[in-house]
Amino acid sequence: MKNKKYLEISATKKNLKKIRNFIALRMKQEKFSDNKIICAVIVITEHIENIIKHSYKNKRKKIKIFLNIKYPLCKIKILDTGKNFDITKAKITRLKKRIKSGTGGKMGLKIIKSMTDNIIYKRENGYNKNIFVFNENNKT
Amino acid sequence: MVNLKEYERNNILIIEIYGELDSGSVPEFSVKFKQIREKSLLKKIILDLSSLSFISSAGWSFIIEEAKKIKKSGGDMKIASMNEAVKRVYNLVGIEVLLKSFDNLDDAIKDYEK
Lengths: 140, 114
What we know:
The structure holds two protein chains of two kinds. Chain A is globular. In chain A, strands 1-2-3-5-4 form a five-stranded antiparallel β-sheet, covered by helices on one side. By secondary structure, chain A is of the alpha+beta class. In chain A, a hairpin with a 2-residue loop joins strand 4 and strand 5. Chain A has four helices and five strands; from the N terminus they run βααββααββ. Chain B is of the alpha/beta class. Chain B is built from four helices and six strands. In chain B, strands 1, 2, 3, 4, 5 and 6 form a six-stranded mixed β-sheet that branches. In chain B, strand 1 and strand 2 (about 10-20) form a beta hairpin. The longest helix of chain B is centred in the middle third of the chain and has 16 residues, at about 55-70. Chains A and B meet through helix 1, helix 2, helix 3 and helix 4 of A and helix 2 and helix 3 of B.
């Protein structure tokens, strides 16, 4: 488990902490800073919360998580079988207005896009493949 | 897993949040938060986040909704003592338009006493 860089797990709310711990531990082993680890666990939590809510619509289905770490780069690939959704093309509108009115939607998208150094999206073989890149040398 | 502790100081309801707040723990948080609110008559509230180690947008959404409800009913809620990870998201998404934050609890209390 210690050096495991692949995790196949049900996308459930209860598993979010387990997934955060999986990523944080591997990045810590590779000497990433706390700042970069925080970015990664926040972004991946937001992404998986989106999968649970929008892509899987709270149905119990699996996701696959692959870590490819070569310091200073950490690439986290997440595969889900939900409907097509290209996060790189998603637009974030009227966020402050939403917050002011007491609704918080779209915050997750803003967080994902702002705290990731790069995002690559592909739809292949029935999977959404999202690769989130974190670069220790970038000050995100 | 998330826990809440509440106490009163200077006629202000202080609610301390312990643990992590994501879509998995929001339902539990929601129940505990509403129970505390129902048994208190205080209109001024401070969320002490010094022991909150993680919060996702699902957690923020709940807090934002509650802050709005509290304002509508003539009350007010502020937040205090965020750690760096929590503060980062707070600043990034612009939560300050609805919820004022303070570096520590004493400063938040002083703001109510102005």
